[in-house]
Amino acid sequence: xxxxxxxxxxxxxxxxxxxxxxxxxxxxxxxxxxxxxxxxxxxxxxxxxxxxxxxxxxxxxxxxxxxxxxxxxxxxxxxxxxxxxxxxxxxxxxxxxxxxxxxxxxxxxxxxxxxxxxxxxxxxxxxxxxxxxxxxxxxxxxxxxxxxxxxxxxxxxxxxxxxxxxxxxxxxxxxx
Length: 176
Hints:
Blueprint: H1 3-20, E1 31-33, H2 36-42, H3 44-81, H4 87-140, E2 145-147, H5 160-172
Parallel strand pairs: 1-2
Helix pairs in contact: 2-3, 2-5, 3-4, 4-5
């Protein structure tokens, strides 16, 4: 027997055995799918986390925007006045602009790092809550497996809406 036939036989034997079993002996395997991106877009805890982050970082973002606008205005003014300035005045103002730009870039980088760190903290909390809810839904509805990533999933197996509703209900009920 060739290796191909042995491999095919090894795969088909369990199929034929399962088909030969009485229907009551066959155990059904329930599988579900959750789209985590959709949960993060639509669930109330995710929206609340996003609003919290926006409120927390709004002032710093406005300050950075104002500093960037002031730097741009100072740079444009320097460009206009540069031909009339002496060499030493031009060099002094140019150094000042470079220092301001360096400070602006540093503050912007720090802002982005802080925002990313806080965003990761908030998302981790949402993920943990969502995973608890997924487990509760899976246990309550007797699912054997819940997938979060798949190339294709039949929409009848998608339980994302149930998870979002349960997550929203746990939020409105005061659960964290």
